[in-house]
Amino acid sequence: MTRLLSLLALLAVTTPAFALFAMTVPVEDARREAIAAEDRGDQSQALAIWRSLADKGDDEAEYQLGQHLTRGPASTAERIEGAHWLTRAASRGHQGALDALSALAAGTAPVTLSARR
């Protein structure tokens, strides 16, 4: 049993697909929590959740965090950080992030968050 657990732990660390599978349920729950926080106007809580998921490599969270940081009355540092997160999401093929980066490059800010997956 101990060998099996050790093997599973090794797979989780070395195999991205396995690691993503292992975190699918908590990620979906956390995404719902972030959306609920946004809906009730608690932007700081939503940002904290998106940041936590983005730090773990979730492309939707990277996109959402990037969107939050690049729109509205953001500071230059926030916009730079937002572009970083959008770039990470875009590098994973996230279409909304690709669109947002195009809008930023054209000098226009994305008006709304694209449809959530």
The residue-averaged pLDDT reads 79
CATH fold assignment? Serine Threonine Protein Phosphatase 5, Tetratricopeptide repeat
H/E element string? Answer: HHHHHHH
Give the strand content.
Answer: under 5%
Could you describe the largest sheet, including whether it forms a barrel?
A: none
Give me the Rg, rounded: 16 Å
Give the number of helices: 7
**How much helix is in the residues?**
over 70%
Query: How would you describe the oligomerization state of the chains in this entry?
Result: single chain
Write down the domain tally.
Answer: 1
- The tally of strands reads 0
Low-confidence stretches: 3-22, 111-117
The N- and C-terminal alpha carbons lie at a distance of 37 Å
CATH architecture: Alpha Horseshoe
The shape is globular
CATH class: Mainly Alpha
- Structural class, from helix and strand content? mainly alpha
Protein name: Sel1 repeat family protein
Keywords: Signal
Signal peptide: 1-19
InterPro entries: TPR-like_helical_dom_sf (IPR011990)
How are the SSEs placed, and which strands pair?
Blueprint: H1 2-14, H2 16-22, H3 24-39, H4 43-55, H5 59-70, H6 76-91, H7 95-105
Characteristic key phrases:
single chain, mainly alpha, Serine Threonine Protein Phosphatase 5, Tetratricopeptide repeat, 7 helices, 75% helix, disordered C terminus
Tell me about this structure.
By secondary structure, the protein is an all-alpha fold. It has a single domain (24-105), classed as Alpha Horseshoe (Serine Threonine Protein Phosphatase 5, Tetratricopeptide repeat). Helix content is 75%, strand content 0%. Helix 4 (43-55) packs across helix 5 and helix 5 (59-70) runs parallel beside helix 7. The radius of gyration is 16 Å and the shape is globular. The N and C termini lie far apart (37 Å). Mean pLDDT is 79; it is low at 3-22 and 111-117. Residues 1-19 form the signal peptide. Keywords: Signal. This is Sel1 repeat family protein. InterPro entries: TPR-like_helical_dom_sf (IPR011990).
